[in-house]
Amino acid sequence: MKIFAYGLRLLHPCAVAAVFLLFVGQALAAGPDRQSVYLTVAGPLEVIRQGADHVVRLRGAAIYQTTGEPLTAQSYMSVGEPDDGFDAVLLRRGLGNVDCPVVYDLITVGADGKSAL
After folding, report:
1. Which end of the chain, N or C, is surrounded by fewer C-beta atoms within 10 Å?
2. Alpha carbon distance 89, 20 (integer Å)
3. What is the pLDDT of residue 54?
4. pLDDT of amino acid 10
5. Is the pTM of this model over 0.70?
6. Are strands 86-93 and 115-116 parallel, antiparallel or unpaired?
């Protein structure tokens, strides 16, 4: 009987630690997922998936967001010189069916940090 009680005493901290690690792992897995990163003249432009939503961030600030639609960066182009040029990223959103048609958006980013959609 003493061996059984000693085994339960050892098992209890291990079980608590295992449950804690399970919940921490799930929380980390549910966090934002960076889909792509482009180094533009104004700084990094990121496409981040957060569950079913997507956010486009320039230097960490959100400049575009979709809700419930898939979003992917299709192509990247740089025009002009780094001091006075701009970069453009073509975004594709939607599934391509009747409920969620495909739409293309073009985001341009200037060296001054301003962006346009």
Report:
1. N
2. 41
3. 92
4. 57
5. no
6. unpaired
